[in-house]
Amino acid sequence: MPKIDRIETTLVDLPTIRGHVLSMATMMVQSIVLVEIRFSDGSVGLGEGTAIGGMSYGAESPESIKVAIDTYIAPVLDGLDGDRINTAADIMSRAVKGNPIARCAVETALWDGLARRLGVSVAHLFGGPVRTAMPVAWTLASGNSETDILEAREMLETRRHDIFKLKIGKRPVREDIAHVAAIRDAVGDRASIRVDVNQAWSLDEARWGLRGLQEIGVDLVEQPIGARHMRQLKSLTDGYEIAVMADEALQGPEDAMACATDRAADVFAVKIAQSGGLKKGAEVAAIARAAGIGLYAGTMLEAGVGTAAALQLFSTLPSLAWGTELFGPLLMKVDLLERPIRYADFAVHLPDGPGLGVTLNPDVVAQYRRDRQPGVPGIALPG
Ligand SMILES: O=C(O)C[C@H]1C=CC(=O)O1
Ligand SMILES: [Mn+2]
Q1: Which residues does the entry assign to the active site, renumbered to this chain (predicted)?
Q2: Is 12 within the bounds of a domain?
Q3: How confident is the model at residue 221, as a pLDDT?
Q4: What pLDDT was estimated at residue 378?
Q5: Which of 122, 246, 260, 306 has the smallest C-beta neighbourhood within 10 Å, fewest atoms?
Q6: Measured from the CA of 137, which atom of ligand 1 is nearest?
Q7: Helix (H, G, I), strand (E, B), or coil: what is residue 183?
Q8: Looking at the domain assignment, is residue 376 inside a domain?
Q9: Which atom of ligand 1 is nearest to 269's Cα?
């Protein structure tokens, strides 16, 4: 019986390839928490906990994830049978309210450990993959329409992405619509264009916004209004033809159930981190499927470990109508992995090998760990 011997966390700050401009923050660096669980039989499991824009996207930050794990999760899991992931998840959710990213990071490391000990992939533990390549969106968020157009053209030419998600909500609605229209016109029908407002609009702004986006041929709008405003989200879903996707509104199966019961959204962005782990992410996906709601594999802009964990789960879902946005490693200047995840032919490819199918590059971790490079994180808030 392999016991949990030690849970180690490391903050790593990876510079982004360009400023990533979101409605709530501009990211120059992505900060991640690596989790390594050491088991009594010598096996090791890897996990990752990653937030967006410090604490400006949600209630967890890289620092809070580390504290939650070191101070509140590691002690209650100490000595537990490492194979008992359901028990560990239950203990974590009783010991720590909220903090789904921290719980997901630890659960991921437990899945990786168990799958490695069995010599199988994590996807295998979820019933096996139904696909090994998944469509993958890229986020255009340089903050400048011309730069975004050049980026989009390059992605199409190199066959890396033909789905683009534009981050809007920082500028007045009219300006945002003009920005989206310029990109729509530039790429024509070679790509699917979607937008993410990250909750920035009021309901009346959203009504104008959705009407404008629909007119210019945008396929989908993500979380246009506040996460808590489920009834208003439903009114937008019912009022327009453009698909409405819930993201921040979905913090696990209970939210998914409420959103599905009212059919407040057409599509769910399922994030393993926001759901509180792979198992709960699978539950969110099952609720969507049962309710006839479309599925999209979302990201917290994780580096290779978190992205691989999401790929393992999403490869097993019978239908993934809206594809994925599991491009996080490509947003960072350096890759954390020994063998980077493969992006080709407009798809992201499931890594093979046991566990998550990935191993860390120790030199990159050594160079970018926060305790070796003081003075980060690089986040600018608007205004
Ligand atoms: O969905 C979000 O809000 C977070 C994330 C996903 C892509 C991206 O650029 O940011
Ligand atoms: Mn989103």
Answers
A1: 167, 325
A2: yes
A3: 98
A4: 63
A5: 260
A6: 7
A7: helix
A8: no
A9: 1
Could you report the per-residue pLDDT of 148-193, keeping only the tens digit for each? 999 999 999 999 999 999 999 999 999 999 999 999 999 999 999 9
CATH number (domain holding residue 153): 3.20.20.120
Both 114 and 133 in a single domain?
Answer: no
Ligand 1 neighbour 30 (Cβ under 6 A): no
Same domain, 13 and 48: yes
For ligand 1, say whether the CB of 298 is within 6 Å of any of its atoms: yes
Which residue segment(s) compose the domain that 66 sits in? 4-121+361-367
246 lines ligand 1 (CB under 6 A): no
Which of the following is catalytic: 66, 165, 167, 280?
167
DSSP per residue over 126-163, as a string?
Answer: TT--S-SEEEB-EEE-SS-HHHHHHHHHHHHHTTS-SE
User: Within a domain: residue 225?
Assistant: yes
Spans in the chain with pLDDT lower than 70:
374-383
pLDDT in the model for residue 1: 86
- Pull the structure tokens for residue 2: 């392999």
What is residue 381's predicted lDDT score, i.e. its pLDDT? 66
Q: What is the per-residue pLDDT for 318?
A: 93
Residue 69 identity (one-letter amino acid): I
279 as an active site residue: the answer is no
Which pLDDT score is estimated for 374?
62
- Which ligand 1 atom sits closest to the C-alpha of 223? 3
| Segment 362-378, tens digit of pLDDT | 999 999 999 887 665 66
ipTM topping 0.85: yes
Estimate the crossing angle of helix 203-215 against helix 173-187, to 10 degrees: 20
**107, 222, 302, 325: the active-site residue:** 325
Residue 75 lies in a domain: yes
Tokens of 363: 């030199």
325 lines ligand 1 (CB under 6 A): yes
Spatial separation of the C-alpha atoms in residues 27 and 14, rounded to whole Å:
11
CB 231 within 8 Å of CB 203: no
196 Cβ below 6 A of ligand 1: yes
One domain, residues 99 and 159 = no
- How far does the centroid of ligand 2 lie from the alpha carbon of residue 223, in Å? 6
Do residues 164 and 215 share a domain? yes
Query: So what's the pLDDT on residue 6?
Result: 98
Whether residues 283 and 259 fall in one domain: yes
Please give the helix or strand (H or E) that residue 20 lies within, else none. strand 4-21
Residue ranges with CB less than 5 Å from ion ligand 2? 196, 222, 247
State yes or no: is 167 an active-site residue: yes
Dist. CA 195–CA 206, nearest whole Å? 12
Our count of domains for the chain comes to 2
pTM: 0.97
Ligand 1: which of 151, 301, 307 to mutate, judged by most atoms within 8 Å of the beta carbon?
301
Residues 88 and 156 in one domain: no
Residues 297 and 312 in one domain: yes
Any atom of ligand 1 within 6 Å of the Cβ of 324:
no
Residues 328 and 254 in one domain: yes
pLDDT reported for residue 23: 86
